[in-house]
Amino acid sequence: MKAAYRRLLIKLSGEQLAGKSGFGISPTEIKRIAMELREVHELGVDVCVVIGGGNVIRGISAAAEGIDRASADYMGMMASVINALALQDALEREGLVTRVLSALEIQSVAEPYIRRRAERHLEKGRVVVFAGGTGNPYFSTDTTAALRALEINAEAILKGTRVDGVFDADPEVNEDAQMYSSISYLEVLSQGLKVMDSTAITLCMDNRLPILVFNLKAGNIVRILSGEEVGTLVHSEAK
Questions:
Q1: Going by CATH, does the domain composed of 7-235 fall within 2.60.40.10?
Q2: How far apart are CA 216 and CA 36, in angstroms?
């Protein structure tokens, strides 16, 4: 099978590693994700991952509780490094050579993020996990995903979620919510839809980088790569 994309950046939230508990790291869930990524890699696709830290701490939530916003964001970045190391371990147990590149310098456990180094790892067939956000407070891991995808010339961002795509209302609250098969960046921004934050959407829009929002259940990434219509495509013009 010829994959629909040659190089992908997959955006995962920290909560997805937690499984049903919503906190910490579920060995079962992280193994499932690693197995899925192995299947993608076996199709000859260059795989990059940006992972959040919300299963440990969310910077915005911590700031709302009274912690200094910049400090809270740095804590969230360090949480993403924890998750990246856990994912690296799970991927290597599946036989994939994996490198963690962190925007925060923690050289004992991760390589510093250098764009050309990331490119070389991908050329050698390694999976690259980007951690530590952008290295700056006030920027989300959504923005990190958009930035890194553009830097390494990914053909699309695949954002795994708990729901099937982008809806006109929260499907977990409103059973009448309707899912879009395709929607433009401008429609996402004007309707205030929770796809990615506005900085990330604008960055993707300015550079015409498509975003595919889908349910991260078993088999869906491979289905996307086989050309099946899965989830919601966010791009320049809605179909």
A1: no
A2: 10
